[in-house]
């Protein structure tokens, strides 16, 4: 039986744990318009899928105060549903049925991954040992695939999954926006726990992106509330960051979240046509 994480009352977000660091919107050669997904490719690289084009823009941080610049731009056959980063490639799930794409980090070559017949990928993420975790929209299930696209295991799930993230010990987490929940699964696909996220007043939470810290904390971005929420391993809501708005540091219809190695999180701020980086505050 899955346990239910404890959740605070609606509107009680706890301590402020994240502060605005910087925004990335592109430049003269490429300008973000409608970013749908983001992935961290390393300490100084982020990949942003934009429905405009559609395309995958890779940004590099030059350091020394020069900021993030466009390093590569890859045309996609359809808008991306999700982007994640493996050992040496980006994994892209698009809104083109039956297609998963990879982009090599070495030369940004785009390739199509062969899938078992009938799979319609939605949210997807890279797991350890070159395995892939994919929400199969057609069959209503989560599938673990090997590097060749063969199904290794499958778990039935009726709800729409907006984002997936690997957890400890081979397990994983799923963000379910319609239910306003984050669920934790074991390595065998058994649901271990779930958390009903608090809304903002009468507006329910709509989780669309998540990342898992080494200490078991789960960082979630709420599309409806324009918030970053931090959930402890025990299920207690530890705190939050940002709110809804247009100014730098505020979010309007965020669509995805990724974590950089230095602990900052980057959010696809879809309604504002940019991605924003937030740093963790010292507690």
Keywords:
mainly beta; 283 residues; 5-stranded mixed β-sheet; globular; Neuraminidase; 8-stranded mixed β-sheet
Describe this structure in words.
It is a single chain. Helices cover 0% and strands 51% of the residues. With 283 residues, it is an all-beta fold. A hairpin with a 3-residue loop joins β7 (80-85) and β8. The protein is globular, with a radius of gyration of 18 Å. The mean pLDDT is 92.
Largest sheet: 8 strands, mixed
Q: Could you state the order of secondary-structure elements as H and E?
A: EEEEEEEEEEEEEEEEEEEEEEEEE
At CATH level 3, the topology is Neuraminidase
Under CATH at level 1, the class stands as: Mainly Beta
Number of domains: 1
Report the CATH architecture: 6 Propeller
Distance between the termini: 34 Å
The geometry reads as globular
Number of strands: 25
Q: Low-confidence parts, pLDDT < 50 over ≥5 residues? A: none
In angstroms, what is the radius of gyration?
18 Å
């Amino acid at each position: 039986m899955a346990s239910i994480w404890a959740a605070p009352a609606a509107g009680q977000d706890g301590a402020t744990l994240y502060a605005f660091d910087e925004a990335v919107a592109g430049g003269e050669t490429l300008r973000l318009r409608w970013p749908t997904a983001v992935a961290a490719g390393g300490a100084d690289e982020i990949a942003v899928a934009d429905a405009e084009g559609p395309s995958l823009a890779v940004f590099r941080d030059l350091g020394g105060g020069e900021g993030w610049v466009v390093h590569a731009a890859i045309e996609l056959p359809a808008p991306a549903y999700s982007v994640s980063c493996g050992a040496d490639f980006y994994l892209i799930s698009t809104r083109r049925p039956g297609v998963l794409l990879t982009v090599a980090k070495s030369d940004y070559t785009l390739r199509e991954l062969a899938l078992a017949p009938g799979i319609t990928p939605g949210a997807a993420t890279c797991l350890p040992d070159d395995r892939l975790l994919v929400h199969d929209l057609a069959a209503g299930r989560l599938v673990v695939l090997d590097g060749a696209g063969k199904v290794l295991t499958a778990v039935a799930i009726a709800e729409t999954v907006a984002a997936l993230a690997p957890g400890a010990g081979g397990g994983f987490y799923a963000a379910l926006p319609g239910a306003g929940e984050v669920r934790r699964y074991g390595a065998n696909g058994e649901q271990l726990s779930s958390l009903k996220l608090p809304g903002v007043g009468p507006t329910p939470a709509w989780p669309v992106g998540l990342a898992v810290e080494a200490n078991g904390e789960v960082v979630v971005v709420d599309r409806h509330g324009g918030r970053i929420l931090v959930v402890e391993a025990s299920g207690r809501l530890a705190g939050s960051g940002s709110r809804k708005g247009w100014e730098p540091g505020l979010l309007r219809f965020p669509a995805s979240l990724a974590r950089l190695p230095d602990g900052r999180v980057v959010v696809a701020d879809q309604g504002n046509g940019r991605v924003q980086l937030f740093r963790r505050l010292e507690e």
